[in-house]
Amino acid sequence: MAVVTLSAVIHREGDLYVAECPELGTVSQGKTLEEAVANLKEATELYLEEQDEPPAFAPAILTTFSIDTANAEAA
C-alpha cells in the first residue's frame, strides 16, 4: 500500500489524550500526546491490515462553530 497522510483529532479525557482518525474512524489513547498519536497509527495500521480492499481515503473537513453559553439551559 502507498503511504497516505491521515488526520488525527485529539482531545483530553481525564488524564489521557484520545486520538481519532476521522477518515477511517479508528480511535486510540495515550498518557501523552505523542503516545496517543503513536497508538492511533498502530491501531489504524492494524485496521487496514484486516480490510479485504483498501478503503477510499477522503480528506477530513475540519471547521469550527460558536455557541452562546450564556443562554444555555442547565441540564
Structure overview:
This protein is α+β, with helices and mostly antiparallel strands and 75 residues long. The chain has a domain at 10-51. It has one helix and three strands, in the order βββα. A three-stranded antiparallel sheet has the order 1-2-3, with helices on one face. Strand 2 (16-21) and strand 3 form a beta hairpin.
- The oligomerization state is single chain
Based on Cα principal axes, name the global outline: extended
Radius of gyration: 16 Å
The share of residues in helices is: 10-25%
Brief descriptors of the model:
21% strand, three-stranded antiparallel beta sheet, 1 helix, 75 residues, extended, alpha+beta
Topology (elements, then pairings):
Elements: E1 9-13, E2 16-21, E3 26-30, H1 33-49
Antiparallel strand pairs: 1-2, 2-3
